[in-house]
Amino acid sequence: MIPGQYNKTDIISFLELAGSIPVIDVRSPSEFRAGHIPGAHNIPLFNDAERADVGTRYNKEGSLKAIIEGIRLSGPSMHSKLEAALEVAREGKRLLVHCWRGGMRSEAMSWLFSLGGIETHILQGGYKTYRRHVLEVLRAKREMIILGGLTGSGKTDILKYIEQKGHQVIDLEGLANHKGSAFGSLGQPQQPTSEHFSNLLFERLCLTDPKRPVWLEDESRNIGMVFMPEEFYLNMQNNQAIILMIDIRIRLTRLLEEYSCYPPGQLIQSVMKISKRLGGDRTREAVDAVNRGDIASAIIIILQYYDKAYMYGLGRKPQELLHYVNTDTGDVELNAGRILEASKQLGK
Questions:
Q1: Residue 315 or residue 56, greater confidence
Q2: Which residue blocks in the chain are alpha helix, DSSP H?
């Protein structure tokens, strides 16, 4: 490839190429952390401080002064950026490149990469165009089956079993690194930003067949600190939901297995997250139970709150969309079978 040459690529072609060509995001590290194309590599033209410096220079002294400042700041590290690009490109010698708007940063880095013989494709409109495309796709109506149920019903495991049977499933809590309740962050890695969560959701949704329904777990607007895209969430609310009803004693066994391994301090921190909703007396009772090692009593107190809140929420939904399945077992395979049988009645 002739040094300095590069290709401009629209978002659809860019994402198709991303299946076989590495993506390089040349935005600053903080921009990348806020949200990026899943699987992209961050080789920033500027670090966060340099980006702020160039932006200040642009606002105060104009574009030419900003360009000169950018060259001064980035020049000493150009060799390491090219080395990083060569490491990612390897034998393929092709890279997909983008910045925020598909302008000067991506063009400058594509020029640099071309000096190493790398063929580059720049995303027209940059990450901003990608985000617009993501939200358009997530806004579109999709046929879904929502699996609901009281806390501790084993919905995540049931969905995994349903997926093994050939159905399309998206694990929202898995994408969010959170199990949904006040205890949902225990044992989980750091949550993505809401922006990046929607990027991950988009990627997962694109792997599904739009002619077939997608199974999802019933969630509130937020999963921990992650908020779902509004239109996608509303689409979930307008689809059929199968609600698994299991006795509290069966659910208690599952939750004890899941959470009794955590230190009392972490459990108490989780209780305190919902202390205002529990009320002072119930919070003290739950904390005291944890301190004396009676995790079962603490879980029952928490479940009573969550059960009441969840049933209240169900009562506010269109009842014609809700289909209840009662079960007397915590067996995942049996309950998944009953859920699938109920889905047949929906014509799915």
A1: 315
A2: 11-17, 29-34, 48-61, 63-74, 78-89, 104-114, 126-139, 155-164, 172-176, 194-206, 230-237, 248-259, 264-273, 275-278, 280-291, 295-315, 332-344
Out of 40, 95, 99, 172, which one is annotated catalytic?
99
261 counts as catalytic: no
- So what's the pLDDT on residue 173? 96
Tell me what pLDDT residue 2 has: 53
Q: Spell 1-14 as b/e; 16+ CB within 10 A means b.
A: beeeebbebebeeb
Helix (H, G, I), strand (E, B) or coil at 305: helix
Distances (CA, A) of 9 to 89, 98, 209: 18, 10, 25
Angle at 44 between CA 42 and CA 48, to 5 degrees: 115
Can you tell me the distance from the alpha carbon of 219 to that of 227, in angstroms, rounded to the nearest whole number? Answer: 10
Contact between 225 and 190 (Cβ < 8 Å): no
Digit-coded pLDDT (tens) for 237-290: 999 999 999 999 999 999 999 998 999 999 999 999 999 999 999 999 999 999
Distances (CA, A) of 53 to 17, 25, 270, 280: 34, 20, 41, 50
The identity of residue 87, as a single letter, is E
First and final CA of the chain: distance in angstroms?
52
**For residues 218 and 299, is the Cβ–Cβ distance under 8 A?**
no
